[in-house]
Write a sequence for this structure.
């Protein structure tokens, strides 16, 4: 059995033998297939709730019910495949955030990871249910300080852990264009700042709050480097796309394998945030003004400017997931170009452990 020498990840009474959270990837990239495979290897597998119901037949007409039905199904399918730790990633900016949180708690998901906004009211949905752990995803020390103090004052609840996501991540980013390349916003700097803030909260509450680092983590050596700064574990998403168990189509995975470093760029998302993606003909057409405004039947993201948006990002991402890259694009982290083959999740985890252990030996 492979492992990370002297390293595991504890969130409350949950212990992940592998200190790796597989990042949530919408739309439909990380579902029960990938999440259960990661959980079975000792990591924390995560289902993304973003646009999860888009493959349901009634999605266009009844998007809320379709999303909740699909979410329940994916959580239950994942639980059938694993006894390991499972989470759901939920964007605060989703218009059905509250219903998605409630459904996840009803299905007794182990952890809710909430980002893309400040989940200031997240503990209000727990009620008497104490199984599900609550973990905000932040991009600054200020954000976790704000969230934690709100939770403690209003709900007497302290975050069970925190994920700090740096500017090298894929998908929607919690930074402006200038901050993406500013050394003051590097993951290494952010991790130390968040740990310092979390220590204050731990001293006030007596509760241990592990800090997990994400955004640009790609190798076992990266894991070694960031945990030496005090991170309790890491969140990785991009590296899991090119696995056999990833829920995306083979054509989606090939976009990672075939892309070059210069193909990965920053786009302006219709939801009002910058995003990192593999730039393709679809996105070139958007830049050239060739995409026409569309009618949005559901307004799934609160911040989306549906009157002026040149395309539906949810539909574009779902098209990419099923391999229709002419009508969509793939979000990706800064290191996506480094992928050169499709492996199993178990093979990937073993490689990461070996790389980490080698770094331990060498240092």
């Amino acid at each position: 059995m492979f492992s990370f020498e002297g390293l595991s990840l504890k969130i409350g009474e949950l212990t992940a033998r592998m200190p790796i959270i597989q990042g949530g990837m919408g739309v439909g990239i990380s579902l029960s297939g990938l999440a259960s495979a990661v959980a079975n290897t000792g990591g924390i597998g995560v289902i993304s709730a973003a646009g999860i119901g888009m493959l349901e037949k009634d999605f266009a007409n009844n998007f809320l019910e379709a999303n909740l039905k699909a979410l329940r199904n994916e959580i239950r399918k994942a639980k059938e495949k694993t006894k390991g730790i499972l989470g759901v990633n939920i964007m605060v900016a989703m218009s059905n955030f509250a219903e998605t949180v409630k459904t996840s708690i009803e299905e007794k998901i182990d952890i809710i990871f909430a980002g893309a906004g400040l989940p200031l009211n997240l503990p209000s949905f727990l009620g008497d249910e104490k199984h599900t752990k609550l973990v905000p995803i932040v991009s600054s020390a200020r954000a976790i300080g704000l969230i934690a103090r709100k939770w403690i004052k209003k709900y007497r609840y302290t975050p069970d852990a925190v994920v700090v996501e740096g500017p090298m991540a894929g998908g929607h980013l919690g930074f402006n264009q200038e901050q993406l390349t500013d050394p003051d916003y590097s993951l290494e700097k952010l991790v130390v700042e968040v740990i310092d803030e979390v220590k204050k909260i731990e001293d006030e509450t007596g509760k241990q709050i592990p800090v997990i680092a994400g955004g640009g983590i790609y190798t076992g050596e990266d894991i070694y480097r960031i945990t030496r700064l005090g991170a309790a574990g890491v969140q990785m998403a991009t590296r899991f796309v090119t696995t056999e168990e990833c829920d995306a189509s083979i054509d989606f995975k090939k976009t990672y394998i075939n892309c070059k470093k210069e193909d990965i760029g920053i786009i302006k998302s219709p939801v009002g945030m910058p995003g990192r993606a593999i730039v393709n003909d679809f996105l070139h057409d958007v830049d050239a003004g060739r995409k026409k405004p569309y009618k949005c039947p559901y307004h799934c993201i609160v911040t989306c400017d549906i009157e002026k948006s040149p395309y539906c990002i949810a539909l574009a991402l779902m098209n990419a997931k099923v391999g229709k890259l002419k009508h969509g694009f793939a979000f990706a982290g800064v290191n996506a170009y480094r992928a050169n083959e499709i492996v199993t999740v178990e093979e990937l985890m073993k490689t990461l452990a070996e790389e980490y252990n080698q770094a331990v030996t060498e240092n």
Q: What stands out?
A: The chain has two domains: 9-248+339-362, 250-331. Residues 250-331 form one domain. Residues 191 and 213 are 7 Å apart (CA to CA).
